[in-house]
Amino acid sequence: MYEKYMQLAMPLLLVLVAVVLVQPSTAVPLPLPKWHIHVVNGLRNQTLFVHCKSKDDDLGNHTLSTKGQEVQWTFKVNFFGTTLFWCYLKKPNFYVAFESFWVEKTHPWLTSRCFDKNCIWIAKDDGIYLRNNLTNVDELVHPWNKMV
Q: What pTM did the predictor assign?
């Protein structure tokens, strides 16, 4: 009886050990962190069209007609650390598409700017900025692309 039990338990134990050894580099630490993403209209006298989505969630189309209006959402990173959101923004004659959230596995560029898991993307006249929450400085990340 003991031998049968060990024959069943040993493969499961090996899988468990493998998961524990691999987890720090491929998965998100538990508990799963909650993130807040904002896309803000910082344009002078222009309407901003916003469409953000992930593989699983389409956040829909939003028209931000005045400066200061924003679209925001909150989510938890999935267990496998593959959560990814991207956005398409448009103003008259210009557009930009970019990743608004991704899980960083090596270099913490996004995490260092989105202190306290709060990312603030701002559409300004010359491009899309990400607020560095620690320094309170908006950093230009994506210039606008001219529509053809």
A: 0.80
